[in-house]
Design goal:
Homohexamer; trimer of dimers. Its EC number is 3.2.1.55. This protein has 514 residues and is of the alpha/beta class. It contains ten helices and 26 strands. The chain folds into two domains: 120 residues, Immunoglobulin-like (Sandwich), CATH 2.60.40.1180; 366 residues, TIM Barrel, CATH 3.20.20.80. The strands form seven sheets. Strands 2-5-8-9-10-11-12-13 form an eight-stranded parallel barrel, surrounded by five helices. A six-stranded antiparallel β-sheet has the order 16-20-21-26-23-24, with helices on one face. A four-stranded mixed β-sheet has the order 17-1-22-25, with no helix packed on it. Bound molecules: alpha-L-arabinofuranose (AHR). The site of alpha-L-arabinofuranose has 10 residues, from loops.
């Protein structure tokens, strides 16, 4: 409902600290289903994202199942992770799948040239990744190598994974421990082809994409949905060219956008200890996601009016300066309440565009960028972003409901302003109506009156859910204080026919409205 919110900003400047914002959920006009894959995750061979953070190997003293940390997997399962994208990112276009099969002790050792030039011993390969997906109960999204690979290499990887035949590659899979073919849910042809994937232009890539997909052959029940590598930030050319040029075998076009507080790659801003000006710019920059999606949708609607092709935001999240003293190539950053607010704002945007945005993957799962979990040897800590993901679980596969906001106030800094309240609603699979509210203002609480039913009248009597907030903008969890930021129960009852939710400053509230 961002657009409506912005329209209501004229009230911003004169709004009092406790102006009542009115949210109306129209249950009579259900919208598209919010695909559970909107809550997808991304795990790249980068820093300690996989090695240490999730994979410790079967011989580790850290409790593990088939090499994957039990504590981390257990926590991730609570998020009902619908799918995991692997092995990159930029890493994908230098990854050769045959390096990651067979006995681990015999696998070639490579250098991870994208991320810190550290050694990559290929301990995690195709079989290990499928183990992780199975442990999580998640679908798999494998990113193929177009940059330094070949059509043949991608075609053979698909055959290795999905062939029920007696071909040499299928037999090799059996020899390596997997008899039955795997279902590969999604497969992408390269990553960021405009940059680390090969510095191409979209026209050239469109031809390579068609060439590749011609040779991705698999039995119907195991065949992946194929994803084309698209644009980023305000560039819509990739979505335009791809949806014009490619007529078959393209389930989605990817799109990447990272939220950087300063908007500058050279000095991005710190994850904690930042000034309020960077809280504001982070809100402002993350809300740009809405316009980028709208612009991509506009070109896609022109070329693909039947909406056959999805816009998959398969990398998004905050990107800060790395924590002092850590390897610059590892992209390790703390995660604060600000990140949880960013996540919730993006969820609300994705819900609004559920007709096209059918998958997103936050970057990244563990220890990298906007992570769910941070680890330190045997210890792990859940981040505020983790809690935001958990609070939004009811939105997975829920039916979106239109929400209108009246009297929305603004959070302003100087001459600039962003809407104070962002709202999203859906009817979940349990039949209940869920409402998510976000307050971008780090200083002012607000009251939100909730109406359910739209023109048919108001039936809202009760709100039951959770609130995530804290006194400090950069409140975060550490290994010594792991519960500094965590959700608390929140409920409200209607009084005098009016249901009012008290939305604290810098907060996220999600709950069921009855
Ligand atoms: O997520 C980190 C990196 O960001 C990915 O490898 C790349 O695709 C993007 O530029």
């Amino acid at each position: 409902m961002i657009r409506r919110t912005i329209l209501a900003l004229s009230l911003a400047v004169c709004g009092s600290a406790f102006a009542q914002v009115a949210v109306t959920i129209d249950t009579a006009k259900p919208g598209p289903v919010i695909d559970k894959n909107v809550y997808g995750q991304f795990a790249e061979h980068l820093g300690t994202g996989i090695y240490e953070g999730m994979w410790v190997g079967p011989d580790s003293k850290i409790p593990n199942t088939k090499g994957w940390r039990k504590d981390v997997v257990g926590a991730l399962k609570e998020l009902r992770v619908p799918l995991v994208r692997w092995p990159g990112g930029c890493f994908a276009d230098e990854y050769h799948w045959k390096d990651g099969i067979g006995p681990r002790s015999k696998r070639p050792v490579k250098v991870n040239t994208n991320w810190g030039n550290v050694t990559e011993d290929n301990a995690v390969g195709t079989h290990e990744f499928f183990d992780l997906a199975e442990l999580l109960g998640a679908q798999v999204y494998i990113n193929g190598n177009l940059g330094t690979g070949s059509v043949q290499e991608m075609s053979e990887w698909i055959e290795y994974m999905t062939s029920p035949s007696k071909s040499t590659l299928a037999e090799l899979r059996r020899k390596n421990g997997r008899d039955k073919p795997w279902k590969v849910d999604f497969f992408a042809v390269g990553n960021e082809m405009w940059g680390c994937g090969g510095n191409m232009n979209p026209e050239h890539y469109a031809n390579l994409y068609k060439n590749t997909t011609t040779f991705i052959r698999a039995p119907k029940e195991f065949k992946p949905q194929i994803i084309a590598s698209g644009g980023h930030t305000d560039d819509v050319k990739w979505a335009d060219v791809l949806t014009r040029e490619v007529k078959n075998d393209m389930a989605g076009v990817s799109f990447h956008y990272y939220t950087i507080p300063t908007g500058k790659w050279e000095v991005k801003g710190a994850a904690t200890g930042f000034p309020e000006s960077q809280w504001f710019s982070t809100m402002q920059n993350t809300l740009r996601m809405d316009k980028f999606i709208r612009d991509n949708k506009a070109v896609m609607d022109k070329n693909d009016p039947e909406k056959k092709v999805g816009l998959y935001v398969d990398e998004w999240g905050t990107w800060y300066d790395v924590e002092p003293g850590t390897n610059a190539g590892f992209l390790y950053q703390q995660n604060s309440l600000r990140d949880a607010v960013v996540a919730a704002l993006n969820f609300n945007i994705f819900h609004e565009h559920a007709d096209r945005v059918r998958m997103t993957n936050i970057a990244q799962m563990v220890n990298v960028l906007q992570a769910m979990i941070l680890t330190d040897k045997t210890r792990m800590v859940l981040t505020p972003t983790y809690h935001a993901f958990k609070m939004y679980v009811p939105f997975q596969d829920a039916t979106s409901l239109p929400v209108s906001l009246e009297n929305n106030t603004a959070y302003s800094a100087g001459t600039q302003a962003v809407p104070q309240v962002s709202a999203s609603a859906a009817r979940a699979k349990d039949g209940k109506v869920y409402l998510a509210l976000v307050n971008t203002d780090p200083n002012k609480a607000t009251e939100v009156t909730v109406n359910v039913g739209g023109a048919a009248g108001n039936s809202a009597t009760k709100f039951t859910g959770q609130v995530l907030t804290s006194a400090k903008m950069d409140a975060h969890n550490t290994f010594d204080a792991p519960n500094a930021v965590k959700p608390a129960a929140y409920s409200a009852q209607a009084a005098g026919g009016k249901l009012t939710v008290q939305l604290p400053a810098k907060s996220v509230i999600v709950g069921a409205v009855e």
